[in-house]
Specification:
transcription (chains A, B), 3 domains, 12 strands, 434 Repressor (Amino-terminal Domain), Rossmann fold, Peripla_BP_I (chains A, B), four-stranded parallel β-sheet, DNA-binding, DNA binding (chains A, B), six-stranded parallel β-sheet, homodimer, alpha/beta, Peripla_BP/Lac1_sug-bd_dom (chains A, B)
Chain lengths: 344, 344
DNA sequence: TTGTAAGCGTTATCAA
DNA sequence: TTGATAACGCTTACAA
């Protein structure tokens, strides 16, 4: 194996010491311009590449950050990761992505794996399962910055970047009301997670603010799968007084609901309007495009990465945890737009 | 900061040396059973965690492998990554995922980044652009195993795990012929990539084998975007003698084609049948579900990871590059299944 | 401005 | 079976 060039090789060739070479390479001020240029030129000539492992061992940093997401094949999370990459690559960091598949064991396991891999920080969106705080405490003990995005937990001292789910939900529900809908059902999700709790609350408040009757029977807790959406829609359609609109906290359940509604012969949006959440690409591509709430995931990723950079630089000084909240945008499409407003 | 426990701490507490502790922890045979148990118990008690960085520095390995994919938000690549994870996590490796977004600069940049991060190997699916062989040569010079999956390049000494695209294509085309289609168009893609060349060739051969006329005008090269599918379908429908079926090398272009066909008032599959490739989840979820070719991505990932493990263990001994080819499966759905065969 | 030397946490080699 | 020591490649006081 062709040995890699080290700073010793450069030092030897130039009759200097490794220390000087190291300084020259790192643009340390305590060095002459001439030496610096000579060293840097020689480094290029000899194909020198820094051994990041050694630097990491010495500095205690790995220049890797871990990103933990429930899954990476959703457009939302993939886009957040993209945003994180955009911000972190230029700073010399690498991004290790792990998926939890919403399983608590995997979530805990991933955190431990990443810690073991010496990541300099963890950016994560927590899973549905109620991961114990214990593991997060061990993170702060080790002084590994933890930043939540999208799905957070309230842990003191931990920063987060989320969207205003409450407002997104409020906007979506208000839109349905303005389209003339009177009995709006809500497909909720594990409300021990803030995002789903807030989506529920925003929905509820919009109903109340507009003088409609809030009916708890129209709120169903399910989870983000197409098949679940079908199942739940079936339940709703069987009610004595079925809804004339469904606002889902997930695009996937919205899709399932749409399939079921159409199959039972109802028209969308005329009979029943549907709105989803997340603005997954398929909501745009469907024959019946789906109204949804966009969460600006790239922006979310970039913001989370910036917070990480601040915290990792802050070292031992007291942390000022930030709670950044982005504003969502309602994208109106066919599934809820009644062109003739006679329905009102 | 609470200092991490090192083997020195354990050694000190037990009046041993770090070397002995290291041996005990690594189940080195040259140690007494008693010491081993004592050390291991103490390690647990003191919350010892191995510093993988130091181990990496010493061994020259990082226990990280890099995975490069065009994008991670397609079900296909996400599933391959899942397969790789399943195989590699138990062996103590971590997986660093990078996306190229089909840009050559990013592809080259990612490889260099990963090398700089000291990955022990790279598993990749190459991008559409014609990445220069130079970068791959530098990989083999550094003795970093490179394994291609799905989208490969023929480089001597490099292993690959692919599916039999030729056969998948052949099956899909044959299926359309059996459904009574006579003029089958093919949406191709950059044929400098083997997968798309093979899908083209399988299609062509099936046409010829079944006595149909092969018409080069029915083959259109495009790229994997929904909007492209629409555009290309428009072209095809404008032909003097339009096709009665479209076999697309991508589910995304198939989807676009379907949108356009329906918009122009044709019926699917009666007037025009459509088959895609990759078995993305949306092909199943659409109101009009789409026939597609499944590529068993998880299996592909696992196989690729296994090849990596073999190569990384082989050390300096001569490599025996493997070319593993998996068999695809045709999943027939509504977009091509004519229930009444009167069309024949 | 440059050199010396210690140290980051391991593992491997040699000696005891 | 265990201990002492060097080495992996780099950074950084401290000394010159």
């Amino acid at each position: 194996m062709k040995k890699k060039t080290t700073i010793y090789d450069i030092a030897e060739k130039l009759n200097l010491t490794a220390a000087t070479v190291s300084r020259a390479l790192n643009n340390n001020p305590k060095i002459s311009e001439k030496t610096r240029e000579l060293v840097q030129a020689t480094a290029i000539e000899m194909n020198y590449e820094q051994n990041t492992l050694a630097r990491a061992l010495k500095s205690g940093k790995s220049f890797n950050v871990g990103v933990i997401v429930p899954r990476m094949d959703s457009n939302f999370f993939a886009s957040v990761i993209r945003g994180i990459e955009e911000e972190l690559y230029p700073k010399g960091y690498h991004v290790i992505v792990c998926q939890t598949h919403d399983q608590e064991e995997l979530e805990t396991g991933n955190i431990m794996s990443l810690l073991n891999a010496q990541v300099d920080g963890i950016l994560m969106s927590i899973s549905n399962s109620k991961t114990k705080n214990k593991i997060f405490n061990s993170l702060s003990q080790k002084r590994v910055p933890l930043i939540f995005f999208d799905r957070k937990k309230d842990i003191s001292g931990v920063s987060s970047v989320t969207i205003d789910d409450y407002n997104g939900s409020y906007l979506a529900t208000k839109h349905l009301i303005e389209q003339g809908c009177k009995r709006i059902a809500h497909l909720s999700n594990d409300r021990s997670l803030e995002i789903f709790k807030n989506r529920y609350l925003g929905y509820k408040q919009a109903i109340i603010d507009h003088g409609l009757e809030f009916d708890e029977d129209l709120v169903i807790e399910t989870f983000s799968k197409v098949a679940e959406g079908r199942k739940v829609a079936k339940q709703l359609l069987n009610l004595a007084s079925p809804p004339d609109a469904i606002f889902s906290s997930s695009d996937f359940t919205a899709l399932g609901a749409i399939q079921e509604i159409k199959e039972q012969g109802f028209k969308i949006p005329e009979d029943i309007s549907v709105v989803g959440f997340s603005n997954e690409p398929f909501t745009r591509f469907m024959e019946l495009s789906i109204t949804s709430v966009d969460q600006s995931p790239i922006e979310m990723g970039r913001k989370a990465a910036k917070v990480f950079l601040e915290e990792v630089d802050a070292k031992d000084s007291k942390k000022n945890p930030q709670q950044i909240v982005l504003q969502p945008e309602l994208i109106v499409r066919k599934s809820s737009l009644k062109t003739n407003l006679e329905a009102i």
